[in-house]
């Protein structure tokens, strides 16, 4: 309960934390089942919360999918979380680029730096291209 009071956890992530903290690994499954029955732990709720928080941090869909997948969330729950948020990834990439690099122009080194930055943040090539195109770059 102490862990869940701080933030949402996925079942796999919570099981790992409990296994490190307690030696009774055979009871962890029962504890998780009880928490899920009482709706105190829910992978769907965790996935939606995780996606929203990462979007707020400026992360793109590729990075979010990778990070949430590493936390043991099923792919159908990931897709449902993305469907519930429905962000415009192209506009988010452009807003992030404008915040971090207001003027890019035609400098190839700066454009490459922006591309690497957006790629690291998890945006696809098409989204990066959209973020770099536009009247503010003329």
Automatic annotation (TrEMBL):
<dbReference type="InterPro" id="IPR053925">
    <property type="entry name" value="RecX_HTH_3rd"/>
</dbReference>
<dbReference type="GO" id="GO:0006282">
    <property type="term" value="P:regulation of DNA repair"/>
</dbReference>
<dbReference type="Pfam" id="PF21981">
    <property type="entry name" value="RecX_HTH3"/>
</dbReference>
<dbReference type="InterPro" id="IPR036388">
    <property type="entry name" value="WH-like_DNA-bd_sf"/>
</dbReference>
<dbReference type="GO" id="GO:0005737">
    <property type="term" value="C:cytoplasm"/>
</dbReference>
<feature type="domain" description="RecX third three-helical">
    <location>
        <begin position="88"/>
        <end position="132"/>
    </location>
</feature>
<protein>
    <recommendedName>
        <fullName>Regulatory protein RecX</fullName>
    </recommendedName>
</protein>
<comment type="function">
    <text>Modulates RecA activity.</text>
</comment>
<feature type="domain" description="RecX second three-helical">
    <location>
        <begin position="43"/>
        <end position="81"/>
    </location>
</feature>
<keyword id="KW-0963">Cytoplasm</keyword>
<dbReference type="InterPro" id="IPR003783">
    <property type="entry name" value="Regulatory_RecX"/>
</dbReference>
<comment type="similarity">
    <text>Belongs to the RecX family.</text>
</comment>
<dbReference type="Pfam" id="PF02631">
    <property type="entry name" value="RecX_HTH2"/>
</dbReference>
<dbReference type="InterPro" id="IPR053924">
    <property type="entry name" value="RecX_HTH_2nd"/>
</dbReference>
């Amino acid at each position: 309960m102490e862990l869940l009071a701080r933030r949402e956890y996925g079942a796999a992530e919570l099981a790992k934390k409990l296994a490190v903290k307690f030696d009774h690994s055979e009871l962890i499954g029962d504890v998780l089942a009880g928490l899920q029955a009482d709706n105190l732990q829910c992978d769907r709720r965790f996935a939606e919360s995780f996606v929203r928080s990462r979007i707020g941090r400026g992360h793109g869909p590729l990075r979010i999918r990778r990070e949430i997948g590493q936390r043991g969330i099923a792919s159908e729950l990931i897709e449902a979380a993305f469907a519930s948020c429905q962000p415009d990834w192209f506009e988010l990439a452009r807003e992030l680029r404008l915040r971090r690099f207001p003027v890019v122009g035609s400098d190839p080194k700066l454009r490459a730096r922006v591309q690497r930055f957006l790629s690291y943040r998890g945006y696809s090539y098409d989204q990066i291209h959209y973020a770099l195109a536009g009247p503010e770059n003329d």
